[in-house]
Amino acid sequence: MYVRSFLLLVLWLVGANSHLLKFEDCGSVKGRVVQVDFVPCGYLNIEFQMLETVQNATILMNQIVEGKPEPAPLPYIYACNQYDFYGLRCPLRAGGRYNFSLDLAQEEPEFHLKGRFTLKDLSAHVIFCSQFSFWFC
Ligand SMILES: *[C@@H]1O[C@H](CO)[C@@H](O)[C@H](O)[C@H]1NC(C)=O
Ligand SMILES: *[C@@H]1O[C@H](CO)[C@@H](O)[C@H](O)[C@H]1NC(C)=O
């Protein structure tokens, strides 16, 4: 009975955390990443907190290949102009928490990568830079 309860508890804990990815910071300045939530073949949510207010932002994705960032273009460069796509509205206010979201059900075949996401203001100052492994499918 105790063993069973313990196993259920472990399963519950693992299940509850299984979507949070480990991420590395690669030079965040005006914001910081709080968590990266990943649902395989579903979506990616990069939750971040703003340390300063910015009026507008661009988003860049790179694929890290042998330690080097290679271009891996996203459909839209302006992060706030496509609310339906990225789920962000500008301005992004100091202290606020936001999710940058990406639909992952768009690539065939399944595509694994170490990705780097960089959100910048329009003066090209980095808001956040975060990298982690995930996949499209
Ligand atoms: C962000 O800047 C772009 C390019 O100048 C512009 O088209 C867009 O309307 C701006 N978005 C916001 C939310 O201000
Ligand atoms: C961001 O999304 C995660 C789930 O992916 C959710 O737990 C969190 O509350 C969201 N944060 C904001 C600021 O919407």
TrEMBL record:
Domain MD-2-related lipid-recognition, chain residue ranges per copy: 45-134
InterPro entries in the record: Ig_E-set (IPR014756), ML_dom (IPR003172)
SUPFAM superfamilies, sorted: E set domains
Keywords of this entry: Signal
Signal peptide stretch: 1-18
Highest rank taxon of the organism: Eukaryota
Name of the protein in question: NPC2 protein
Protein source organism: Branchiostoma lanceolatum (Common lancelet)
